[in-house]
Amino acid sequence: MRATGLSKVVPSGAAVLAILQDIDLEVMPGEAVAVVGASGSGKSTLLGLLAGLDTPSSGAVELAGTALFALDEDGRAALRARLLGFVFQSFHLLPALTALENVMLPLELAERADARAAATAMLERVGLADRLAHYPKTLSGGEQQRVALARAFVVQPQLLLADEPTGNLDAATGAGIIDLLFALNAERGTTLLLVTHDEMLARRCGRSIRLAGGRIVNGAGA
Q1: Residues 169, 87: contact at Cβ < 8 Å?
Q2: CB of 74 closer than 8 Å to CB of 85
Q3: Considering the entire predicted model, what is its pTM?
């Protein structure tokens, strides 16, 4: 994954606000990279641009040899479905679906015939074999995030994007989730890009990139 000259500006009254400015970044296959910085430094905006969930004011992103913003919205969605997994701070589970159905969903969208079996095996791997039929509201925060991890990894993504994955969890539960995240990442050889404000968590990654004022202040490049 490579970003070059990536910038994002938005109107702010009579002026414009530069959220990100001239970001150059390359993440190699199999790397685990942390993106750190103070609140408002542009971390989540960067992740959204790298995933094609938002469009830049200027610059380019290349995923698996494909120029992301040369694609239309449907094309970017198809590329995300094929290459990316996501884990968010707020879980983003569908409340009307059980744990199993939440994990099956991306597989069903990809028309995988083994969706139920693969989702069941993934939930067993994250320690939720006895929670398959539970709805999100009946699960603890840690259990919901385990479901989210299962959903992210079940599609065998090349790149996993995680945005403050322990932000809504207590310290002990969060530590368990991070151990599981890195274990799954190592097992599957996934490239990991992790947004966090937690310096101890960042040190578990192979490399850290620090943002300040919308710019990379260290760690640029590969």
Answers
A1: no
A2: no
A3: 0.86
Residues across the chain: 222
Distance between CA atoms of residues 207 and 205, nearest Å: 5
DSSP secondary structure of 57-104? SEEEEEETTEEGGGS-HHHHHHHHHHHEEEEETT----TTS-HHHHHH
CA distance 180 to 142: 11
pLDDT score, position 4: 96
Reduced to 3 states (helix: H, G, I; strand: E, B; else coil), residue 11 is strand
Cα 96 → chain centroid: 23
Question: What's the angle, vertex CA 213, arms to CA 210 and CA 217, rounded to 5?
Answer: 35
3-state DSSP call for residue 215?
A: strand
> Do the beta carbons of residue 112 and residue 78 sit within 8 Å?
no
Consecutive 10-residue averages of pLDDT for the chain (222 residues): 95 87 93 91 92 94 94 93 88 95 94 95 95 97 94 93 88 89 88 90 92 81 42
Tell me how far CA of residue 30 lies from CA of 53, 74, 85, in angstroms.
22, 27, 14
Residue whose pair of structure tokens reads 């995300």 in the numeric block: 80
CA 196/CA 187 separation, integer angstroms: 22
CA distance 105 to 96: 12
Query: Which pLDDT does position 14 carry in this prediction?
Result: 84
CA distance 76 to 70: 9
What pLDDT sits at residue 220?
Answer: 45
